[in-house]
Specification:
Order of helices and strands of chain A: EEEEEEEEEEE
Shape of chain A: globular
Shape of chain B: globular
Strand content of chain A: over 45%
Distance between the termini of chain A: 36 Å
Helix content of chain B: under 10%
Number of helices of chain B: 0
Structural class of chain A: mainly beta
Largest sheet of chain A: 7 strands, mixed
Number of strands of chain A: 11
Oligomer: heterodimer
Chain lengths: 115, 112
């Protein structure tokens, strides 16, 4: 079964540094999402992306965050200047269509640790 | 605002017994409801969804969920639990736009 692939699996970064998290969607999927899960807490929506633009973003997704799909395959999440509170699991999810018809498929996540 | 609640942090059940993981929802409009499972160090795996139609929804790995509009509930069930079902289970509702809003999760522990 096709999978959403995320790299790296674990990223350790000094506070204030930039990080880029990468996601390879399932090939025919058109809708892309980032979620995060702080340790011990629930999964939270960050941003949705469709047709090369952001569809919606949460209040967590401030100016330090950005997303893009630079080469038509990888979908990336960039955090420009990381803070301690950015430490979390970040999950990419993709779907073929809208939620009423197609479920979102999740990658295994990137564990981001900010020191 | 759309939301789901999972009232139990943990559910313990003996292998072979039926299991229920509870979820209640609050939505404006028609609810689109989902169950996902998370195994250790893995992402969320889709189990099943309710969009419309039959109140009993069948999903992966023998799981099913019962949609109850009057009780605003969408409980996950399985007739006979396996030790391998032990994992973290998340109920979710579609937001106003196409995003998932998750509950806090319920840890299912199945004992041999």
């Amino acid at each position: 079964e096709p999978e959403v692939t995320q790299t790296p699996s674990h990223q350790v970064t000094q506070m204030g540094q930039e990080v880029i998290l990468r996601c390879v969607p399932i090939s025919n999927h058109l809708y892309f999402y980032w979620y995060r899960q702080i340790l011990g807490q629930k999964v939270e929506f960050l941003v949705s992306f469709y047709n090369n633009e952001i569809s919606e973003k949460s209040e967590i997704f401030d100016d330090q965050f950005s997303v893009e799909r630079p080469d038509g395959s990888n979908f990336t999440l960039k955090i420009r200047s990381t803070k301690l509170e950015d430490s979390a699991m970040y999950f990419c999810a993709t779907s073929e269509g809208a939620l009423e018809n197609q479920p979102q498929h999740f990658g295994d996540g990137t564990r981001l640790s900010i020191l | 605002a759309q939301s789901v609640a999972q009232p139990e942090d943990q559910v313990n059940v003996a292998e072979g017994n039926p299991l229920t993981v509870k979820c209640t929802y609050s939505v404006s409009g028609n609810p689109y409801l989902f169950w996902y499972v998370q195994y250790p160090n893995r992402g969320l795996q889709f189990l099943l969804k309710y969009i419309t139609g039959d109140n009993l929804v069948k999903g992966s790995y023998g799981f099913e969920a019962e949609f109850n509009k009057s009780q605003t509930s969408f409980h996950l069930k399985k007739p006979s639990a396996l030790v391998s079902d032990s994992a973290l289970y998340f109920c979710a509702v579609r937001g106003v736009t196409d995003k998932l809003i998750f509950g806090t999760g319920t840890r299912l522990q199945v004992f041999p």
